[in-house]
UniProtKB/TrEMBL annotation:
Swiss-Prot/TrEMBL keywords: Hydrolase
Lineage: Bacteria, Pseudomonadati, Pseudomonadota, Gammaproteobacteria, Enterobacterales
Protein name: Pyrimidine utilization protein B
PANTHER family attached to this UniProt entry: ISOCHORISMATASE-LIKE DOMAIN-CONTAINING PROTEIN, PEROXYUREIDOACRYLATE/UREIDOACRYLATE AMIDOHYDROLASE-RELATED
One Pfam family hit: Isochorismatase
All copies of domain Isochorismatase-like, residue ranges: 18-72
Keyword Hydrolase: yes
Domain of life: Bacteria
GO MF, any single term: hydrolase activity
Length: 78
C-alpha cells in the first residue's frame, strides 16, 4: 500500500490495483514551438504542470504502477 499526502485527507491505495492516467499532454498544446504557441497563445504556464506530471510518472514507475497515456486524436469522419 502507498499513502499520498493530499487535501483534505491522505489517499491510500495498492499500486498493483491502480493506474496513473495522463490526459492529452501533447507538444502541440503544451510546449513552445507547438501549435498553440505558434498560433500566438501563451503556453508558459504549462511548464510547471509538465514538471509535476514527470514527478508523478517517475513515482508511478518506481511503484510498478500501470501508466495510461491518452492522446487527443481526430477521425476523418468527425
Amino acid at each position: 500500500m502507498i499513502t499520498l499526502p493530499a487535501r483534505p485527507e491522505s489517499l491510500t491505495f495498492a499500486p498493483q490495483q491502480s493506474a496513473l492516467i495522463v490526459v492529452d499532454m501533447q507538444n502541440a498544446y503544451a510546449s513552445q514551438g507547438g501549435y498553440l504557441d505558434l498560433a500566438g497563445f501563451d503556453v508558459s504556464a504549462t511548464r510547471p504542470v509538465i514538471d509535476n506530471i514527470n514527478v508523478a510518472v517517475a513515482a508511478a514507475r518506481a511503484a510498478g504502477m500501470l501508466i495510461i497515456w491518452f492522446q487527443n486524436g481526430w477521425d476523418d469522419q468527425y
